[in-house]
Automatic annotation (TrEMBL):
This is Uncharacterized protein. Keywords: Cell membrane, Membrane, Plasmid, Transmembrane, Transmembrane helix. It is found in: Cell membrane. Residues 312-348 are annotated as: Disordered. NCBIfam families: yihY_not_rbn (TIGR00765). The chain crosses the membrane at residues 45-70, 111-131, 152-179, 199-217, 229-256, 262-286. GO terms for cellular component: plasma membrane. Pfam families: Virul_fac_BrkB. It comes from Cnuibacter physcomitrellae. It is a multi-pass membrane protein.
Length: 374
């Protein structure tokens, strides 16, 4: 395997993590912490937590609806909540159990089902949108995609994440009796079923890491490197989530006294804090991914000390944003000098009028000529 110096001299970015070398790893780990603080990672996590609170129940509705089509929704939801109770502080599972169980047990007509899933996906996409804005900050790029293109991409990512979470829920829901029943039908030996009981937990961990890597890869207005690099940030995020959840659970159980202070609201408070810890870990993992990419670019000889050299997905609206900023500065100078402010050329009515004139001119140019008179 060629050392990092060879990759640098050849101008190629290292293709695997072990090609980075000790110096690069020390540099990128230290800079990950610096950039996390410099870009106000705590504030980004707080903003993501707000959108997570808005999105969690619509997302749960979408997942439970999909599970209800292919299996036993209430039973699967109960097993997933049992897993959440093992991972998260106890009040979190109790806070979610009532609403999620009600969603899973409520029947609906086909039209209402489809409409509910569509509305739920649209609502859940607000978190994907917020996460994309956070990724733009992490990778130091501006959002240049038009709204319709950006929203379609966010909805597609939301649908993909819902399907992946549904697969994870199915892995959790496959209990011992179900496995033995499936094994009898498929002719699988009992030993194989017992092995799956053990193996499914590493499979579950890998699936969760994959979900986080997909979230990293598909959000933001920047073309990311391959998923094998993004998986490193996902592993860090999952590890931090596990450690922080365990520590927070011990703190809540032994020292906090949320039940005495907040009463019936204790579960909600604990749930929001737990979501904040999750988003904090996700932002930290994204910064690690960005700094790994910076180290790869530096080792290949690219000037990435200040800004990453990754291409953006789209810059359609970047020129409009720059023009608006320039107009604001020019009008500010006129105001400072006491000059009258002329009408803005970029108001919505003027833009609509220009767009209509452009379309009309295009139609007139492509109109077939009239035949000559006979």
């Amino acid at each position: 395997m060629p050392p990092p110096q060879d990759a640098s001299r050849s101008g190629r970015r290292p293709g695997w993590p072990w090609q980075l070398g000790g110096s690069a790893w020390r540099y990128l780990l230290r800079r990950t912490g610096h950039e996390f603080l410099r870009s106000r990672g705590v504030d980004q996590a707080a903003a993501l937590t707000f959108f997570a609170v808005l999105s969690v129940f619509p997302a749960a509705l979408a997942v439970v609806s999909v599970i209800g089509v292919v299996g036993d929704g209430p039973a699967t939801a109960s097993r997933v909540l049992d897993l959440v109770e093992q991972v998260a502080p106890g009040q979190v599972a109790e806070t979610l159990r009532g609403p999620v169980t009600q969603l899973a047990s409520t029947p609906s007509a086909p039209a209402a089902f489809i409409g509910g899933v569509v509305v739920a996906l649209w609502s859940a996409s607000t978190y994907v949108s917020a996460f994309g804005r956070a990724m733009n900050v992490v990778y130091q790029v501006e959002e240049g995609r038009p709204f319709w293109r950006r929203k379609l991409a966010q909805l597609a990512v939301t649908v993909l994440l819902v399907l992946l979470v549904t697969v994870v829920a199915a892995i959790v829901a496959v209990s011992g009796p179900v496995l033995r029943w499936v094994g009898e039908i498929a002719g699988v030996e009992e030993g194989t079923v017992q092995v799956w009981q053990v193996v499914r937990w590493p499979v579950l961990a890998a699936a969760v890491i994959g979900i986080v890597a997909v979230l990293y890869a598909t959000t933001g207005n920047v073309t990311k490197p391959r998923v094998r690099w993004l998986g490193l940030g996902a592993v860090l995020a999952i590890a931090v989530i596990g450690v922080s959840s365990a520590g927070f659970g011990i703190y809540v159980s032994l020292f906090a006294g949320y039940d005495d202070t907040f009463g019936a609201l204790a579960g909600v408070i604990v749930f929001i804090i737990w979501l904040f810890l999750i988003d904090l870990a996700l932002v930290l993992g994204a910064h690690l991914n960005a700094e790994i990419e910076r180290a790869r670019e530096l080792l290949s000889g690219e000037h990435a000390e200040r800004r990453l050299q990754l291409p953006v997905r789209d810059d359609t609206t970047s020129a409009r944003t720059a023009r608006t900023e320039r107009l604001d500065h020019e009008r500010g100078e006129l105001l400072r000098e006491g000059e009258p402010l002329p009408p803005r050329p970029d108001t919505l009515p003027r833009r609509i009028r220009r767009r209509v004139e452009t379309v009309w001119g295009w139609l007139r140019g492509h109109r077939s000529p009239r035949p000559p008179p006979t």
